Amino acid sequence: MYSLAELADRFGLEFTGDANTGLTGLATLADAGPADLAFLANSKYLSQLDSTRAGAVILSQALVERCPVACLIADDPYVAFARISALYDKSPRPAAGAHPSASVSPQADVHPSASIGPNVVVEPGAVLAEGVILAAGVYVGHNSHLGAGTRVMPNAVIHHDVRLGERCVIHAQAVLGADGFGFAQGPEGWERVCQLGGVRLGDRVEIGAGTTVDRGTLGHTVIADGVIIDNQVQVGHNCRIGKNTAIAGCTGLAGSTIIGAGCTLAGGVGVVGHVEICDNVHVTGMTMVTKSITRAGSYSSGTPMTSTRDWKRNAVRFSQLDSIQRRLAAQESRGKNIDKG
Amino acid sequence: MYSLAELADRFGLEFTGDANTGLTGLATLADAGPADLAFLANSKYLSQLDSTRAGAVILSQALVERCPVACLIADDPYVAFARISALYDKSPRPAAGAHPSASVSPQADVHPSASIGPNVVVEPGAVLAEGVILAAGVYVGHNSHLGAGTRVMPNAVIHHDVRLGERCVIHAQAVLGADGFGFAQGPEGWERVCQLGGVRLGDRVEIGAGTTVDRGTLGHTVIADGVIIDNQVQVGHNCRIGKNTAIAGCTGLAGSTIIGAGCTLAGGVGVVGHVEICDNVHVTGMTMVTKSITRAGSYSSGTPMTSTRDWKRNAVRFSQLDSIQRRLAAQESRGKNIDKG
Amino acid sequence: MYSLAELADRFGLEFTGDANTGLTGLATLADAGPADLAFLANSKYLSQLDSTRAGAVILSQALVERCPVACLIADDPYVAFARISALYDKSPRPAAGAHPSASVSPQADVHPSASIGPNVVVEPGAVLAEGVILAAGVYVGHNSHLGAGTRVMPNAVIHHDVRLGERCVIHAQAVLGADGFGFAQGPEGWERVCQLGGVRLGDRVEIGAGTTVDRGTLGHTVIADGVIIDNQVQVGHNCRIGKNTAIAGCTGLAGSTIIGAGCTLAGGVGVVGHVEICDNVHVTGMTMVTKSITRAGSYSSGTPMTSTRDWKRNAVRFSQLDSIQRRLAAQESRGKNIDKG
């Protein structure tokens, strides 16, 4: 439990109300009780403020007057909420040292503060820096390096020659450094192109559960500092993703795609290979990116959802669009001839 | 092997033909031999009935006369087939007890009938009820509960504070309770919002191989009784999925999505965050659901597949649709003027 | 390190330049230094040839004159590059024998040359042929067979009754033989159809990281010789995929889909159930295949990406397409009446 005054002090925020208000947890405006801290970061939920039973609410200066309970005042309430959430996080943190069932190579370089869970495998030449946490069943391949404070969740696989910066989080079942999908069409069928490069992640990179990042063919696949990637994303070989870019779930990047800094790709986006997306591009959900994007801005493809009955009627016309345009052009030309008359 | 009469008796069905017909296995109408039981549940395969060599066929009363071999008569032949299939299932079932390589916390509460495979990890506070089966390499986090008869397939990961009802099946590589994709945009980059909620599954929930269900931010991510989810589906944090809803492979639900009961989402569907789908909605494959659905029925988006040559001709016109509509309106207006003229 | 003459000799190629040129690695035309071998297989990179600093370049006869450095001359430079890449592959290969932490059933048939990594589980009746490699954490179920030279990467799961031919590669976290998504709608909810079939893979099949191939319902799910499948692909129960077909990442095949030989499915494609695609079909990225394809060729669906502002304007018209076509037809009919006068 933290008092309102303690929280204000720790996070450099102003407050209104009783400094001793005890706050045992975080909750939504609608669900919060008198011992909960709530937040208001989206004007959509403004009406919930009036009736909240929270002990206190994180909000912006402009809303203090409207708030019926104590306030923690923040320039950016969502960022303040994010920081405070860490204080209330009770997720288990394991102790330093290796579980007896782990197989750690004596040729690995493991900092004494690292925590190595059951059934973890660490191969020769691997480096685990200060405070690294490997949960149960994680595999770390030959010569892979994990920077200080990096955490890897259960059963994730980090192949050989993969380097992660500091404070990265790799979620369960993620795979870093599987072979890229490179094959040449030989006389008898597909012939494998060995994938000789590795994977390089900067600091504070987040890789979601079940996400796969393939190793490079000759150079490396590179993900810059601060990139956050959601679950079940596929990053093909030789991709490069710029600083602080965010990629939502189920997105797929084909090989050799370059994505700039500060981009946001919504869920289910597909990007073809060998294209380049510049900085500060937003791509809306399920868009098919088939060419390079050279100007910052928001991009989309797809068709709107309707009832299946209406959709069928309209979709069949999609396949006639070119002929519709020609028929329209014929009408226009006829119109002009009538005018000329 | 079961005789025709035995099967009829066990499943409360009528039959025609020789009661002693021995049936050693199940097969399709086309492939079945004299010792196989086949079924006819889809009129598409009706023509195969005439020439089947099966020992017996599960079908509806209306088709008995047409059937050249013995019959098992069912109101719903596919349901009867489903139930009978369990009798012929030879998939291995492990014995009770823990494999010596498992790491089971003494602070876990494990029913003696539970089966715990090689390299399984069960953390403190976890509860495994009667008949739970954990296959090799499964991870069960702190304070997670698995109800009676629930089975978890190899290498699946169940994080802390995840509760499953009875008779659930969690397939290989699935992840329940990874952190949701919650980040605030701070002055230096993305700041993590700790995900303090858990995951709650009802009874008889099926989670496919490689499917990921994120934990809630403040409350829980909730999946109701009888929900079936296929492989490689992504369920974002704070989602709620209603009773008996079915979700096919490769579908992605963004965060805080609410889906009603009795819905069916076909494969590859994407649902944006913070929308609500009411009960009894069907969404066709690869549809992009970008807004709430408030009436039961079937919904779709997308365009029909054609040859790439035709597609290119038509797709380019999609980007001119608004101008096509304006040109058409101009023609209509000109037409009216001529009429008046 | 290999000399130019050695490489030419090993791979049956002609060369120009100094036979003793030492080549220590492979690199792109742009990145290569004097000890690197580069290649030119795509005319897009032709301009890089003029300024390359590579020690030698693999290219076709026609480009020898233009090349400023030594040449390795190949009919198909990309195939030659693929073969030579194996020579420079330094990815770790484990020794024969089983790691002490592996759980290998005495009822499994394991060739002495097989390599079994830490925490691997091999169930009774499994067969591992000569030179099979199972990396850490792999599970091989009852009665599954792995042909000579087949390799399985960390934490992949091979369920019971799955058979793989020779020289297959199964990447990390892949799942072969999970239950197909088969349920009958019973009076109380979904009833499981037990999946009694298995999975059959031919020789030289490649299965990407996180890819799932479900077992068949009655017969088997079948993948023919030489098929290559990328990461995060879902193959439903009872599918059959023909020889040398290639499937790129994030593609989903619903159940009972049949795909011919020599096909290429680009990334993010979805194929509905119970359809058949003939030989030598190419499907472009993110296409929704909703019906059978009976003629070889290239197929597509979807709409082109534009700025979100333009997209919104055009997408709203998609839902009016049928009415636009009717309005156009009315104009045409009016036009004819005017002509008739």
The rough form of chain A would be described as flat
Query: What is the helix fraction of residues of chain A, given as a range?
Result: 10-25%
Instruction: Please count the beta strands of chain A (DSSP E, at least 2 residues each).
Output: 40
CATH topology heading of the largest domain in chain A: UDP N-Acetylglucosamine Acyltransferase, domain 1
Largest interface: A-B, 79 and 76 residues
Oligomer: homotrimer
Features:
homotrimer, about 350 residues, Udp-n-acetylmuramoylalanyl-d-glutamate--2,6- Diaminopimelate Ligase, Chain: A, domain 1
Descriptive notes:
- The structure is a homotrimer of 341-residue chains.
- In chain A, the strands form 6 sheets. Chain A has an 11-stranded parallel beta sheet, with no helix packed on it. Chain A has a 10-stranded parallel beta sheet with strand order 9-12-15-18-21-26-29-32-35-38, with no helix packed on it. In chain A, strands 10-13-16-19-24-27-30-33-36 form a 9-stranded parallel beta sheet, with no helix packed on it.
- Chain A is 16% helix and 29% strand.
- Chain A has 3 domains: 2-87, Udp-n-acetylmuramoylalanyl-d-glutamate--2,6- Diaminopimelate Ligase, Chain: A, domain 1, CATH 3.40.1390.10; 97-299, UDP N-Acetylglucosamine Acyltransferase, domain 1, CATH 2.160.10; 308-340.
- Chain A is an alpha/beta fold and 341 residues long.
- The termini of chain A are far apart.
- The model of chain A has no long low-confidence stretch (mean pLDDT 96).
- The longest helix of chain A has 20 residues, at 321-340.
- The interface between A and B is large, with 79 and 76 residues.
